[in-house]
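A note on notation is needed here, since sequence and fold are reported together in a single record. The reader may check this reading against the record printed directly beneath this paragraph.
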Amino acid sequence: MSQNTKNVKGYFIGFLAGGVVGAAVAFLTTPKSGKKMRKEIIQKSDEYIDEVDKYISKTKRDAVKVIDKNRKKFANVLHDMTSKSEAMYRDAEKVFNDAKEKTIEVFNSGKEIVETETEKLTSSVKAGKETYDDEKKKK
């Protein structure tokens, strides 16, 4: 045999011996069997899934609480705004009606004054015309 073939055989035997020794060490140091290990992995996976489900449920509940709280705040703000706008509308309507009444009063008062002064002026003009006609007849 050649030297290269002896080296390859040596490496191959060393590789197999190392694999067997490694497998034996792993077998002897592994605390659980493969079945037990798979069962534990499945159990841990289920626990993690349950924890994720609990977290999602809690997050949903918290989100619903926040949404409800903000919905109530919004409803209160909307109610306040509506109440204030209605009060402002009533106040504006009152101011408008008061101004309208005062305008009508001033208008009617001014109308009476104009009518009174017109009557005085008419009677003065009439008296002046009668006086003029009387003086004209005398001459």
